[in-house]
Amino acid sequence: MRSRCVPTLAPADSAPTAEGFALAGSRPLGCLLIHGFTATPDEMRPLGEALAARGFPVRAVRLAGHGTEVADLAGTRWTDWFASVAEGADRLHRDVPALAVAGMSLGALLALHLAAARPTEVAALVLCGTPLRLSGAGLRWLPLLARIPWIARRWATIPKPGGPDIADPAVRAASRSYRAMPLSAVLELLRFQAVVRGEIGRVTQPALLLHGRHDHSVPLANLELARRSLGSRLIESHVLERSWHVVTLDYDRDEVARLAADFLTRIEAGATPLAGRAAR
User: In this structure, is residue 7 part of a structural domain?
Assistant: First the structure.
């Protein structure tokens, strides 16, 4: 039965910076958590607390330009976001011999990039709402349209009037994610997508893929695209039936936590019955 507990989040208009967090654990496999585009580490807290309760040491990073104000995000590139991830991985790796990386949306892309760049450090991946490709003709033409000065000025900041893509209204209202996206940051996200699509075939770590059935931000077809593109022998995937995009906070958040903890427990034990084959 789904828990009625709502994750504790600060109000959307609260002033303090939404910083990362660390939770102690006794297991040798540490878990690095990476939030999504325009979001904050709050997005990963329910998952982090569930993993820590199962004994996994946890560190959640705050990506550069996030958790403060939209103008800060406008001044960043994808390499800045990855620098935040690399720094978090270095800090966690000082305490544990192996890392699992869990990412939500942009965080999933960053997890894939870390796995490709540091294959000996990353032992497993939990990828939620992975945006390998976004739909819509407007996005396809956006890099060209952004070169037109009046368009770049008019749409320098793109509003998100509905807030984050979360079905649970209480959680959606409490989210501290930005209510707008800088055009420059959207273009960086598109550039980074191309980078990850070019290297995902070299990612061979065991991977758990999770996606909301009713995701309005990242088409569900990305789940199968990730399955086909990964070089991993062990891939497990699940569709969360009640959730929109942000599955780590939405109605299926408890199921996300359970699936991730069970998957990582099997990986750590090295005795999963799924080893050597892909599983749905």
Answer: no
Question: pLDDT, tens digit, for every residue of 174-184?
Answer: 999 999 999 89
Of 30, 94, 50, the C-alpha closest to 255 is 50
Enter the DSSP assignment of 60.
E
Average pLDDT over residues 225-247: 97
Range of the domain at 104: 21-269
Flag whether pLDDT at 8 surpasses 60.
no
189, part of any domain: yes
Residue with tokens 């598109």: 190
How far, rounded to the nearest angstrom, does the alpha carbon of residue 96 sit from its chain's CA centroid? 22
Q: Do β-strands 58-61 and 29-34 pair in parallel, antiparallel, or remain unpaired?
A: parallel
The number of domains in the chain is: 1
Give the CA diameter of the chain.
58
Q: Six-digit token pair at 5?
A: 């507990």
Q: Around Cβ 267, how many Cβ atoms within 10 Å?
A: 24
pLDDT digits (tens, 9 = 90+) for 149-174: 767 666 667 888 788 999 999 999 99
For the chain, the first-to-last Cα distance in angstroms comes to 22
Q: Is the pTM of this model over 0.70?
A: yes
Residue 121 has what DSSP assignment?
T
Distance CA(57)–CA(73), nearest Å, equals 29
CATH of the domain at 111: 3.40.50.1820
DSSP per-residue letters across 126-164: EEES--S----HHHHHHHHHTTSHHHHHHTSEEE-TT-S
Among 43, 65, 12, which Cα is nearest to 189's?
A: 65
- Partners of residue 125 on adjacent β-strands: 101, 207
CA–CA separation, 179 vs 177, rounded Å? 6
